[in-house]
Write a structure and sequence with these properties.
6 helices; two-stranded antiparallel sheet; binds 5-O-phosphono-beta-D-ribofuranosylamine; 203 residues; alpha/beta
Amino acid sequence: ARLVVLISGGGSNLAALLAACEEPGYGAQVVAVGADRFTAGGLALAQERGIPTFVTRVGDFAERTEWDEALTEQVSEYRPDLVISAGFLKLVGAAFLAQFGGRYLNTHNSLLPAFPGMQAPADALAHGVKVAGATLFVVDAGVDAGPIIAQTAVPVLDEDDVETLTERIKVAERAQLVDVVGRMARHGWVVRDRRVTIGAPHP
Ligand code: GRF
């Protein structure tokens, strides 16, 4: 399967995917990496491997819809089977979802539907929950709201601060992303009534 990965930051999730794609039998290759800013550190990880990169900035367009259309076109050029938001800090629009709906995945650092948004580990601590984690889901028009593909829980420890909890979640998040994307690439998936099944659908 062909993967296009979208990032905004350091790209630790991207790094995990790139490493997995080097394993024989993984079943996927990263064919391009896109970002919404030139400062996304993960772009270098792709460039080092000779993987094409692109940057599509909201600020370069008069309208947000034009940005969305440009991003859609850019990603389409690489004919992905899956598009993965790995710390991509932009909500895509209608054009993107029309093209990639059902195969655009996002990884989020909470057990959704708890704690959507940008501060999930801090929100989890502030709420006093004892279990946190990571969610891989199919992006829809909502924010952190689409059909859930997989979740991994991690404990919240008494001594945690935002940094230690964020890091524990990220470790689980990377492992989940690599495992589940590989299985989706090898076996396919179906989304029905908001429920995602990897492999053949159950009758
Ligand atoms: C991930 O934890 C994601 O859930 C959050 O941002 C992080 C991305 O990290 N929204 P990286 O750029 O993959 O290191």
